Every structure is written in C-alpha cells, then in structure tokens.
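Supplementary Methods. Inverse-folding protocol.

Structures were first reduced to a discrete structure-token string of length 299. This string, shown here, constituted the complete conditioning input.
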C-alpha cells in the first residue's frame, strides 16, 4: 500500500472486512494517508461499509469490484508482524499497511457531514447523567453475561442516571434501560454517544467510537486485549488472563481466528464471566458522579 497514486495508474480497490470498529480504525488511517501523501482508492461495495465510509476524502468511488483490478486488504490480523507481537496494536498495523511512519498518532476520523441525530435526540428523555450500555458484539465470546448488564442498568437507574441501550433491533432488551436498539445508523449512534456522560461496552464498535467522541468509557476485556484494541483514557476492566479452552480469539491467527471469533466459547465459565458487576457499577458511579472528565455537551 506504499504505492503513490498517479493520474495514469488506476486506483486500487479497498476490500473492507472486519467489524465496524475495524472500519473506524481504517477510516482514520486512510484519512492520515490522504492528508500526508494524497493517497486515494476506490471501495468495494458492501452495504454497511459503504455507509460508514461514504464521503471519505480518500475514497474516490464506491462500486462493485471490477475484474482484474488491484485489491487492497484491510485484514491486519493476518499480518505476521501483528501475530508475532512485533507490531502489537491493530491501529499501528493498519498504519504500516497504508504506508504511514510508525508510531502513528491514534487520532480517529469518521466522515459525518450531512448526518444528524437531532430527531432521535429530541425523543430521548435525557437525565442529568446519561449512561450508554453497548452489550453486544459480532463475537459471542466478547459479550458479558446478560444478567450482569441488568444488574448494572438497575444500579445506574437507582443512582438517578438515564440508561440508554444501543444495539441491533434483534438484541435482547435490558430492563431499566431506554432501548435505542435498531433505531440508529452507526453514524447516528456516534453522534448520540457524544451527548452521553458515560459508555459501558465490551470490545465493540462503540468502544472505539468513544475514543473518537471523547466520551468517558468503561470497557470490558477478556478474549481480546486492551493493550491491542483499547485506549488509555478509558477505564479498562480485564478478566484474569488464561484460557483453558486452548483456542481463543487472541491465541489464533488468520482464518482460524475468523472461525473462533464468530463461535461461542466452549467453556462452561468463560473469561468475561469473571468480571464482577459490582466492579463495573462502582467504576460507573465514580465516573458519573465524581468525574475526572469535563461534562459532555448535549448541544
């Protein structure tokens, strides 16, 4: 990906893979590559990726892949430097793949021109403090047990906070949470998150989005590593290290990792079961009512 685009050479086609958190990372890397050296490419059309990257200055065209064109991969997890730990952070691996000098500043970018959350925001009964819960992931291994989310939501409700649940329309609804599941696009969710006082999430898209919006966050880690995917400004709660199954997300590579990623943990008690709901609740109480962060604007 170090080639310099010229007027006579056809632009390469970016093949977007991974979750929405990955899209946010390579959107940011693409923006830096564009700003620093004029990098541009086309994007292979896939519905949710096209929506996320529409309006990006590095994307010239979004269409179906033409036969014989040059294809660029975003599968950083297949790179030897990443799997060996030589380049341990996903964002830094993407930076190298797109020809950026390491270390890359992890400044996030998402094209949001023309996107508004005002209609949804006008329907939400905002409290003095608002906490967003994002319990789901494309990987069942990265999900905290549902009953712990209900304990957290109940405790936040007792504290007087409005609790919002973000996710897909099919997600199980959390008692004591105001559900926005299936009501927002990913970009609208980012704008709504900016209005909140706290996010509590596993390793998912909104955990990355909180780094973009500056929203205080509690992030939960088990089969993936906060050192690889997390951000230092967040309160990061990690399960005890070690996996008796022998095959977890971070202990596999390439295609095997993709297979493991989408399967449930075979263990009766998996790593995220070991994170205490009391620890999450106490961390949330401190961040909401003894904040070390400036208050978020809901303007």
């Amino acid at each position: 990906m170090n080639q310099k685009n010229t007027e006579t050479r056809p632009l390469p086609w970016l093949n977007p893979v991974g979750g929405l958190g990955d899209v946010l990372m390579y959107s940011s890397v693409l923006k830096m590559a564009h700003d620093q050296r004029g990098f541009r490419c086309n994007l292979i059309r896939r519905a949710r990726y096209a929506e996320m990257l529409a309006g990006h200055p590095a994307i010239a065209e979004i269409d179906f892949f033409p036969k014989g064109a040059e294809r660029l991969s975003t599968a950083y997890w297949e790179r030897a430097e990443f799997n060996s730990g030589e380049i341990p952070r996903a964002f830094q691996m993407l930076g190298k793949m797109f020809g950026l000098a390491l270390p890359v500043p992890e400044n996030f970018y998402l094209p949001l021109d023309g996107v508004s959350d005002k209609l949804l925001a006008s329907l939400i009964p905002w409290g003095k403090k608002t906490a967003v819960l994002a319990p789901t992931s494309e990987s069942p291994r990265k999900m905290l047990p549902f009953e712990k989310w209900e304990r957290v939501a109940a405790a936040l409700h007792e504290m007087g906070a409005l609790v919002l649940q973000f996710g897909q329309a099919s997600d199980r609804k959390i008692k004591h949470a105001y559900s926005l599941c299936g009501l927002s696009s990913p970009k609208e969710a980012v704008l709504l998150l900016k209005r909140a006082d706290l996010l509590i999430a596993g390793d998912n898209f909104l955990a990355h989005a909180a780094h973009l919006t500056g929203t205080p966050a509690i992030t939960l880690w088990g089969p993936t590593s906060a050192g690889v995917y997390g951000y230092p400004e967040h309160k990061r709660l990690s399960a005890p290290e070690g996996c008796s199954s022998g095959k977890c997300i971070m202990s596999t590579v390439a295609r095997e990792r993709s297979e493991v990623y989408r399967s449930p943990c075979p263990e009766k008690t998996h790593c995220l079961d070991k994170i205490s709901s009391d620890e999450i609740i106490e961390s949330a109480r401190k961040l909401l009512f003894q904040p070390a962060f400036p208050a978020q604007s809901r303007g």
